[in-house]
User: Which sequence fits this backbone?
């Protein structure tokens, strides 16, 4: 199997490590702006090409798009033209123009191949259980929900200057609304289609970045549930906590505490707890396993390019509300 990859930063290297674990002997073709020396690429014995058009000659089975967020769209369009299976890191696009361009090419090409967006939280057992309980009516109709996440940006990528990262620069697709699109994707996945109602953002001078450092957004689901999204680059201790409030009870998922709890009038019940069901690192391996099975026709598409575009559209709609 030959798989191309664009982007060999931290997330790209994670995907490559998982590919090597799942498919020993896999051939990697790295797409770069120029054929430059790179000890990491040399260490994995990868071929190097300068564009996806050249990579077509490499007879690729698929491509992983894990480069700078603002550069995803061009590669997606080339991938659609080439008919390649694609694993696309989130967000798939960062502005309206990119979204329109991808949609135009998508309409022309159709999808006769496997696409998967890198929303790996969908593979976390405790979140799968949260979704299942919500859909099964465990707490009745969900009336209000909150999805909160945050972490001190300098801690995200140890050994790098956060001020020079894409997170710090709007032209690179940075800012919490796009960076932490996981929370919007989770809300969509669990509660269904959402409409953007309002959004407020602030910057944090202490971080010395050009992008928004915190955001609070209000959305509404198709059946009237009010959804609050709270995300930031500021929390000194990482936060990731979701709460669904229904007519019969409340479900609380807390990554830091590694608990999924059901609260009703008469009891507080721990549904899941412990590291295994809350292991975020394992979800990257599960996501890549799913992708490899998908390109071999062994599983249905669950996180399509269109799905990624739908989540990105909500972010762009929220940006319009600022």
Assistant:
């Amino acid at each position: 199997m030959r798989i191309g990859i664009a982007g060999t930063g931290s997330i790209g290297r994670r995907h490559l490590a998982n590919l090597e674990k799942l498919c020993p002997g896999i051939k990697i073709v790295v797409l770069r702006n120029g054929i430059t020396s790179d000890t990491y690429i040399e260490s994995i014995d990868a071929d190097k090409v300068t564009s996806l058009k050249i990579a077509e000659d490499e007879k690729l089975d698929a491509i992983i798009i894990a480069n700078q967020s603002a550069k995803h769209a061009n590669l997606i369009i080339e991938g659609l033209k080439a008919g390649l299976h694609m694993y696309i890191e989130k967000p798939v696009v960062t502005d309206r123009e990119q979204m329109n361009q991808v949609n135009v090419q998508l309409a022309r090409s159709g999808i006769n191949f496997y696409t998967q967006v890198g929303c790996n939280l969908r593979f976390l057992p405790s979140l799968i259980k949260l979704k299942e309980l919500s859909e099964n009516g465990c707490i009745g109709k969900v009336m209000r929900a909150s999805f909160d996440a945050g972490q001190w940006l300098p801690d995200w990528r140890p050994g790098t200057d956060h001020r020079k990262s894409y997170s710090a620069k709007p032209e690179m697709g940075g800012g919490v609304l796009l960076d932490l699109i996981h929370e919007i994707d989770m809300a969509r996945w669990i509660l269904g289609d959402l409409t953007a109602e309002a959004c407020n953002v602030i910057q944090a001078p202490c971080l010395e970045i050009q992008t928004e450092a915190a955001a609070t957004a209000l959305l509404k689901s198709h059946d009237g549930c009010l959804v609050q999204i709270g995300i930031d680059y500021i929390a000194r201790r990482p936060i990731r906590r979701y709460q669904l409030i229904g007519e019969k009870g409340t479900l609380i998922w807390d990554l830091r505490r590694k608990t999924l709890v059901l609260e009703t009038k008469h009891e507080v019940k721990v549904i899941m707890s412990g590291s295994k069901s809350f292991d975020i690192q394992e979800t990257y391996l599960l996501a890549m396993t799913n992708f490899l099975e998908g390109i071999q026709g062994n599983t249905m598409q669950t996180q399509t390019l269109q799905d990624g575009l739908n989540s990105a559209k909500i972010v762009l709609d929220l940006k319009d509300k600022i």
The radius of gyration is 20 Å. Residues 305-321 form the longest helix (17 residues). The chain has ten helices and 14 strands.
